[in-house]
Design brief:
By secondary structure, the chain is of the alpha+beta class. The chain folds into three domains: 37 residues; 113 residues, Pdz3 Domain (Roll), CATH 2.30.42; 218 residues, MetI-like fold (Orthogonal Bundle), CATH 1.10.3720. Helices cover 57% and strands 13% of the residues. It is built from 14 helices and seven strands. Strands 1, 2, 3, 4, 5, 6 and 7 form a seven-stranded antiparallel sheet that branches. A hairpin with a 5-residue loop joins strand 3 and strand 4. Helix 1 packs across helix 14, helix 7 packs across helix 8 and helix 11 runs antiparallel to helix 14. It is elongated, with a radius of gyration of 30 Å.
């Protein structure tokens, strides 16, 4: 009977573990399958908002039409009259666009309009030899646009765009939040842990403090977001002259979210240091403070690094609190006294509209996973360099 019971428990354990691994694998496959297409260096370095150019080509004396040789590019519709090759494409926001894939050196689009390969043409208003107006829109595709170009003699209006869909601003915002939050939270959390474990008397008062820290760990982050909106946003508005949510108010909100984790992790690392270290240091004449900061704390560095890693992961993945404390405005120019979005909130913004952008959201998710992985690897490498001071 006991063997049957043990077998049953083992089966449940294996099935549960396998199910959890299967869910994780499916999630990763979904994210990479949908996001890998957009994952390139330009995604990280380019702005989210497009730059718009509005030009015209009406001075017929300054350009020549016709006789431009076709470069014979696959999937490109070419106008030999204007020397431009256009291609149907889809941007990072899953919208149909027409992209310039080729420009002849003497094409009016290059010499007069100053457009470049890679720009997207949204709209062109043209006129043919008889003066009839022609309207070409990107939503109709590249082929009809080229057909209208072949008939046109002048172009009265061109609306073109470049860039767009990048996450440079959100990535910078995330880095700002990580740095500002850790600068505030780590000293407070580490000092609180040192006081509670090394200096405070173990009585009912400290027991209540630890209980409150544990309770705070379980509070939903959206509650902290409300605290940030009610307390930190007005505070920052008066202090740094911000208007509404800002990166600074978001960092303060994340600080109170991370403090319980930092305190508990650091205190556990302090508990792992044998009391013999303390006794030996005190016996040699060192004071309590000298023992704490020169003997105990160096041996607890790995635990502090663990707390830092957990904090960075929480900052990168936090969204609910930042929606209230920072805002959801996707910005390209980032300042600590202005609204902006972190990478996680950027995903929330992309998925919150009527047409969710799964591909770009998955691409950002891959970047978040890579950052967390690199941070984990960095902590592992750092931990190896401090093995001489780590307690065995």
């Amino acid at each position: 009977m006991r063997k049957i019971k043990d077998l049953f428990l083992n089966v449940i354990t294996y099935v549960s573990s396998s199910f959890g691994c299967l869910v994780l694998i499916i999630l990763l496959l979904f994210v990479f399958k949908n996001g890998i297409r957009l994952l390139d260096w330009s995604l990280i370095t380019s702005d989210y908002h497009q730059k718009t150019y509005q030009v015209n080509i009406t001075d017929t004396k300054n350009y020549h039409l016709g006789d431009y040789s076709d470069p014979q590019l696959d999937g490109v519709y070419y106008s030999s009259v204007w020397g431009i090759g256009l291609q149907d494409d889809i941007d990072r926001n899953n919208e149909k666009i027409v992209t310039i894939r080729y420009l002849a050196p003497l094409s009016p689009f290059a010499t007069i309009a100053k457009l470049e390969v890679g720009y997207q043409i949204s709209k062109m208003t043209m006129a043919d030899e008889m003066g009839n107006n022609l309207l070409a829109l990107a939503k109709n595709g590249a082929e009809p646009m080229v057909a209208d170009l072949d008939e046109a003699k002048i172009i009265t209006d061109i609306i073109a765009t470049s860039g767009g869909g990048g996450i440079r601003g959100s990535l910078l915002t995330t880095l700002y939040l990580i740095v500002l939050t850790l600068v505030i939270a780590l000293p407070l959390g580490i000092c609180a842990a040192i006081y509670l474990h090394e200096f405070a008397k173990q009585n009912q008062f400290t027991h209540i403090i630890r209980t409150m820290i544990d309770i705070t760990t379980g509070i939903p982050s959206i509650i902290f977001g409300l605290v940030g909106a009610i307390v930190f946003i007005p505070m920052m508005n008066k202090t740094i002259q911000s208007s509404g949510g800002s990166i600074a108010s978001g960092a303060l909100t994340l600080t109170i979210i991370l403090l319980p984790t930092i305190i508990k992790t650091t205190e556990e690392s302090l508990k792992a240091i044998p009391n013999s270290y303390r006794m030996a240091s005190l016996a040699l004449g060192a004071s309590k403070s000298q023992t704490t900061f020169k003997v105990i704390l160096p041996n607890a560095v790995f635990g502090i690094l663990t707390a830092t890693l957990l904090s960075i992961g929480r900052i990168i993945g936090e969204s609910a609190a930042l929606i209230y404390a920072v805002g959801t405005a996707i910005k390209d120019s980032v300042a600590i006294n202005e609204k902006s979005t972190s990478l996680a909130v950027h995903i929330w913004s992309l998925m919150g509209g009527e047409n969710p952008n799964y591909e770009l959201s998955c691409a950002i998710s891959i970047i978040i996973l890579l950052i967390v992985g690199l941070v984990s690897l960095g902590v592992k490498l750092i931990s190896r360099t401090i093995n001489k001071t780590e307690v065995k």
